[in-house]
């Protein structure tokens, strides 16, 4: 951020959140508008970066012919193309059961997002928090950010790409859907990157869940440890443990302590982990659910599982309804193979505020449908669509 940009107090579009949805929204909106991006953390990539994800979900409805064979053009294909240019030998489609994903290296992911952001010429403000929103009737007119000298920044459109619906919460109850019975019953994520592994990584995929299940049965670890999964790589002798944690019960410090307990137990029980060290942890608990837009159209479970279409201009999406219930753990319900469902523009538009849009995990969807629409590849596509709508549709 330059001193000159800091003095600017008017933007056509303000985007809150710089994960895949936010960066894609900026790339679309900045083609014809003056754009501000506000991100609470100090890195791009949102939960994908914080959770150390190495696979992008929701890009394909079946095994792709090549990595660029995505369901949607623009943001999806552009990001994949950029990552291929940076490290093509490690940008590889994989099959996880019935679900196709795209494996990618972290460096290619983060640098590609940075390139997209820089090329958009959007005003990016990292480690910055939105604190207040001014509303006049059915329009949002200005925002405030945390600052020693906070000033109101005038806006023409606002896009919530925060993941948890932080913007929707600040606006009020008519901006977001009321809670459903399943809300608040979903595991969040917390990732731990391990180094100095001296074991076959594919064996560790089996050994780690088995060892932790035994520990849960004996009472040595809490029940949620049973749902920990291990992904080898990306470097030789490294891997990432993905923990399931309940955001309603654990503070970030509690999650950190649980991660230490799990890793220490694994080191004690698995010979190939005797020299293992924790190289990195998630900076926070990463919730899978949050507030969702009260939109003009709401995506439902039926839409996802029966591949409901809304026309060529809608976002095309495919990913299972991936539910992480705190009682039962993960379950998966799949759309028909090779048949995508659609997310229409009205699922991104507020039904009560004329210049409010949402993208990523905040779009208008039921709790069950959101367990599919929150996939990172789908967030890219809804972000780009929201950025387009913010500048091509009347915001009055």
Describe the structure.
The chain is globular. Strands 1, 2, 6, 7, 8, 9 and 18 form a seven-stranded mixed beta sheet that branches. It has a four-stranded antiparallel beta sheet with strand order 11-12-10-13. A three-stranded antiparallel beta sheet has the order 3-5-4. The longest helix has 18 residues. It starts with a helix and ends with a helix. Helix content is 30%, strand content 23%.
Characteristic key phrases:
396 residues; 18 strands
List the helices and strands and how they pair.
Blueprint: H1 3-7, E1 10-16, H2 20-29, E2 35-38, H3 46-50, E3 55-57, H4 75-87, E4 92-96, E5 99-103, H5 106-120, E6 123-125, E7 130-136, E8 139-145, E9 153-160, H6 166-171, E10 188-195, H7 201-218, E11 229-232, E12 239-245, H8 252-269, E13 277-281, H9 301-305, E14 315-317, E15 321-325, E16 329-333, E17 341-343, E18 356-358, H10 367-373, H11 376-392
Parallel strand pairs: 1-2, 1-9, 2-6, 9-18
Antiparallel strand pairs: 3-5, 4-5, 7-8, 8-9, 10-12, 10-13, 11-12, 14-17, 15-16
SSE pattern, N- to C-terminal: HEHEHEHEEHEEEEHEHEEHEHEEEEEHH
SS elements, strand count: 18
Q: What is the gyration radius calculated from CA atoms?
A: 21 Å
Alpha carbon gap, first and last residue: 30 Å
Describe, in short, the structure shown.
The protein has helices at about 5, 20-30, 45-50, 75-85, 105-120, 165-170, 200-220, 250-270, 300-305, 365-375, 375-390; strands spanning about 10-15, 35-40, 55, 90-95, 100-105, 125, 130-135, 140-145, 155-160, 190-195, 230, 240-245, 275-280, 315, 320-325, 330-335, 340-345, 355-360. The chain has about 400 residues and is α+β, with helices and mostly antiparallel strands.
């Amino acid at each position: 951020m330059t001193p000159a940009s800091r003095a600017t107090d008017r933007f056509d579009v303000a985007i809150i959140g710089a994960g895949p949805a936010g960066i894609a929204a900026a790339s679309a909106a900045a083609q014809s508008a003056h754009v501000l991006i506000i991100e609470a953390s100090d890195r791009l990539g949102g939960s994908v970066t914080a959770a150390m994800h190495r696979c992008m979900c929701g890009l394909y409805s079946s095994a792709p012919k090549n990595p660029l064979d995505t369901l949607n053009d623009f943001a999806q294909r552009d990001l994949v193309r950029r990552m291929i240019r940076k490290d093509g030998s490690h940008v590889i489609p994989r099959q996880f059961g019935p679900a196709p994903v795209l494996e990618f290296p972290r460096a290619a992911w983060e640098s590609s997002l940075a390139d997209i952001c820089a090329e958009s010429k959007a005003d990016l403000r990292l480690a910055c928090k939105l604190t207040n929103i001014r509303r006049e009737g059915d329009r949002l007119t200005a925002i405030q950010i945390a600052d020693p000298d906070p000033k109101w920044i005038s806006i023409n459109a606002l896009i919530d790409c925060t993941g948890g619906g932080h913007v929707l919460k600040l606006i009020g109850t008519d901006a977001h859907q009321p809670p459903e019975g399943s809300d608040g019953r979903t595991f969040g994520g917390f990732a731990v990157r391990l180094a100095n592994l001296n074991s076959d990584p594919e064996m560790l995929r089996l050994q780690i869940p088995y060892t932790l299940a035994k520990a849960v049965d004996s009472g040595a670890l809490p029940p949620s440890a049973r749902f920990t999964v291990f992904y080898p790589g990306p470097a030789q002798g490294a891997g990432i443990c993905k923990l399931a944690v309940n955001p309603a019960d654990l503070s970030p410090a509690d999650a950190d302590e649980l991660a230490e307990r799990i890793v220490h137990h694994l080191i004690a029980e698995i010979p190939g982990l005797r020299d293992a060290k924790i190289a990195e942890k998630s900076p926070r608990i990463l919730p899978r659910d949050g507030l969702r837009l009260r939109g003009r159209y709401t995506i439902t479970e039926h839409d996802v599982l029966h591949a409901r279409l809304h026309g060529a201009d809608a976002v095309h999406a495919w990913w299972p309804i991936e539910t992480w219930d705190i009682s039962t753990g993960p379950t998966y319900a799949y759309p028909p193979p090779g048949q995508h469902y659609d997310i229409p523009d009205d699922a991104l538009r507020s039904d009560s505020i004329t210049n409010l849009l949402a993208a990523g995990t905040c779009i208008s969807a039921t709790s069950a449908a959101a367990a599919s629409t929150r996939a990172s590849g789908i967030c890219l596509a809804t972000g780009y669509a929201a950025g387009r709508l913010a500048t091509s549709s009347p915001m009055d």
